[in-house]
From TrEMBL:
Annotated Xylose isomerase-like TIM barrel domain residues: 33-287
Keyword Isomerase set for record: yes
InterPro entries: IolE/XylAMocC-like (IPR050312), Xyl_isomerase-like_sf (IPR036237), Xyl_isomerase-like_TIM-brl (IPR013022)
Cited Pfam families: AP_endonuc_2
Organism: Streptomyces marokkonensis
SUPFAM superfamilies: Xylose isomerase-like
Record protein name field: Sugar phosphate isomerase/epimerase
Coiled-coil regions listed in the entry: none
MF (Gene Ontology): isomerase activity
Keywords for this protein: Isomerase
Length: 305
């Protein structure tokens, strides 16, 4: 049963992770060891050439090795698929599920199918994905049709594997906000294993509601959470304290939903100092999670803003 909002005794303890796309200069084993040593509960594992390459030979054997390491370190995992150039060295995040060329769409869908298999073998709590940007000259109805058709076999595979597929609304993409997620959900017939990745910074960036309200609205479909600081109207992932988000109410709302997956720090442009930001992000989040939202109404500056 999901705890009722306001019932502090029923709060689900939050589990924090860090994304390997913010540790791109580290070997995957070094990244996992670092996160375990720092006290993280898990990792958002982006399938990329430096971290469990989904296209290189012997994927199943390499996945088993990572699974054993995760188990030894006591880390949970979400499989993320936002690698910039894993499919095409010239097109960032290309090809997408919206490309005019059906073979290109199939390449992206195949990556997601591989991710589902990896997630099942790792015991991951979700597979993350996104729609992509609408190609020039493509009308909206066509783009939505391509997205639904491309995701259908991935959803079937995810259902068979018992791993939720968690679609992320991404600023600038076809599926950019929470309303777009619900449009996709309806188009696909509301499949049980279609869930939502909620990026807290994206809520601050473009959603009309406050981030804490977005969490409450998304709760029934929430399967994965990404978190970072951000400013209104500017899609730039920032270290905690550099943006405008008031985090205690957000984490209070998240705990109240009963969400049991990972809340993963998403700082992909800070890999140059990834260990530093990993070290400093977890204490910030723990302080914010422990702080009462009421404490920020006293007129004193918040230490978690």
């Amino acid at each position: 049963m999901t705890p009722k909002a306001g019932d502090a005794s029923a709060r689900t303890p939050l589990r924090f992770g860090y994304g390997t796309n913010g540790l791109a200069d580290l070997r995957v084993d070094d990244a996992l060891t670092l996160l375990a040593d720092l006290g993280y509960d898990g990792v958002g594992l982006t399938l990329d050439h430096m971290h469990l390459d989904p296209l290189a030979p012997d994927l199943a054997a390499r996945t088993r090795k990572v699974a054993h390491r995760l188990d030894a370190l006591g880390l949970g995992v979400t499989v993320e698929t936002g690698a910039r150039y894993v499919l095409d060295p010239r097109r960032k995040h290309g090809p997408s599920l919206l490309d005019p060329d059906p073979d290109d769409r199939a390449r992206r869908a195949d990556l997601l199918l591989r991710a589902v298999r990896v997630a099942a073998d790792l015991g991951a709590h979700a597979v993350h994905c996104f729609s992509g940007i609408t190609p020039p000259g493509t009308d909206e109805d066509t783009a939505w049709k391509r997205l639904a058709e491309s995701l259908a076999p991935v959803l079937d595979a995810a259902a068979t594997a018992g791993v939720p597929l968690a679609v992320e609304p991404e600023p600038g993409h076809l599926l950019a906000g929470l309303a777009d997620f619900h449009r996709l959900r309806r188009a696909l017939g509301d499949p049980e294993n279609l869930g939502l990745t909620l990026d807290i910074g994206h809520c601050q960036c473009l959603e009309p509601a406050a981030p804490a309200d977005c969490v409450r609205a998304a709760a029934p479909w929430l399967r994965h959470v990404q978190i970072e600081d951000m400013r209104r109207g500017v899609h730039e992932h920032l270290p905690f304290g550099d943006g405008d988000i008031d985090f205690p109410p957000v984490l209070e709302a998240l705990a109240a939903t009963g969400y049991q997956g990972l809340t993963v720090v998403e700082l992909p442009r800070h890999s140059h100092a990834g260990p530093h930001f990993a070290e400093h992000s977890l204490p910030f989040l723990r302080r914010a999670a422990a702080a009462s939202p009421l404490s920020n109404r006293s007129g004193e500056p918040s230490a978690t803003r």
